[in-house]
Amino acid sequence: MSGGYDPRAVANLLLDEADRLDVGVSHIILQKLLYFAHGIYLMRTKTPLVSGYFEAWQYGPVHPAAYKSFKRAGKGPITFRASGQDPLTGEPRKIQTPDDPHIVDLLRQVLLTYGKMPAGRLVDLSHAKDSPWEHVVAKARTEVAFGLRIPDSVISERFRFHKVSVGLEPLSGEPSDDTPLA
User: Fold this and answer.
1) What's the predicted TM-score (pTM) here?
2) Hey, which of 55, 95, 116, 133 has its CA 20 to 30 A from 64?
C-alpha cells in the first residue's frame, strides 16, 4: 500500500489539536498516537494515513521520519513543530498540514481516547498480544526480519487486537527514550 500524508505533517496537526485540547504530548506519546491514528484510518478507509512505515522498537511502533523530527523534545511535552527543508537552499520550510476535516476529527478522537494515558499505558496497548508490533517482534525471533518494519498489511490484519482498558497501571513502568530493537 502506498500513499498517505507526510508523517511529520500529521504529527504537527496532532500536536496542534493536542494544544487546543490542552493535552501535553511527549515524543513517546506522539509516536503511539500517530500509530493509533494510522491504524484506525487504515481500518476505516483501507488506505494509509501516513506515508512511509512504522517499525517495531523497544516501546512499540515508531515512525522513523517522525522520530527524527521530534527526538530532540526528549521526555518533556513537545513545544515545536517539524519543519521541512528546501532542497535547493537547505533553508527550513513549513510543512503543510492536512486540511481534511475527517482527519482532524480522527486526530481529536485519538487524543480524547488515548491522549491522557501515561506513556507506559500506551506502550502496553501497543504491545498487546497478537497486535502488529507483537506479531513482527515474534516473527523476528524465528525468521530474518528487515529492520522490523510493521507493514500496513499486518496493521490491517492485526490492529483489532489492540484492547483499550483504561485505568490500569502500566505493566512496564514509564519509558524514557525509545530505541530500535536489534
Assistant:
1) 0.86
2) 116
To the nearest whole number, what is the mean pLDDT of the chain?
87
Tell me whether residue 19 is exposed, middle or buried, using C-beta atoms within 10 angstroms of its C-beta: 0 to 12, 13 to 18, 19 or more: middle
Residues 14-67 pLDDT 10s: 999 999 999 999 999 999 999 999 999 999 999 999 999 999 999 999 999 999
- CA nearest to 56, candidates 139, 116, 115: 139
Distance (Å, rounded) from C-alpha 18 to C-alpha 28? 14
Task: For the chain, report the end-to-end CA distance as a whole number of angstroms.
Answer: 26
Q: Residue 94 pairs with which residues in a beta bridge?
A: 83
The answer to whether 126 and 175 have CB atoms below 8 angstroms apart is no
